[in-house]
Amino acid sequence: MNLNLEGNKINVSGCSFIAEALKQNVTLQYLNLSLNLIKGKGLKEIKAALMENDKSALEILDVRMNNIRIETIISFIKDVKIQSNKSNLKYLYIKRNNFTLIHA
């Protein structure tokens, strides 16, 4: 099952609703959230939902063309453990996000 929510101006509030659904997801395999208004907090909510649901069927998450910082994406990858036995997630599309690194 696929869900295409590309270009729907989804922000943190929208991600909260999506995260709630992902906590119970056992059928959705592809979720396209590209070209929205998602920032780090929204992706963190999605990450928490995926980590909570060990029966999630989600294999592909597309978050291209949002405003997610590279640090948040790296944290997502580490925590969800893409392509591991802790998650069914195999692909994370991240092209054209906020990849500027800030050095302290």
Number of strands: 4
General shape: globular
What class, by secondary structure content? Answer: alpha/beta
The H/E string reads EHEHEHE
Question: Number of DSSP helices?
Answer: 3
How would you state the average pLDDT, rounded? 92
CATH superfamily: Ribonuclease Inhibitor
Strand order of the largest sheet: 1-2-3-4
Helix percentage range:
25-40%
Oligomer: single chain
Per the CATH scheme, the topology name is Leucine-rich repeat, LRR (right-handed beta-alpha superhelix)
List keywords for this structure.
single chain; 104 residues; alpha/beta; Leucine-rich repeat, LRR (right-handed beta-alpha superhelix); four-stranded parallel sheet; 3 helices; globular
Entry summary:
With 104 residues, this protein is α/β, with parallel strands linked by helices. The protein contains three helices and four strands, in the order βαβαβαβ.
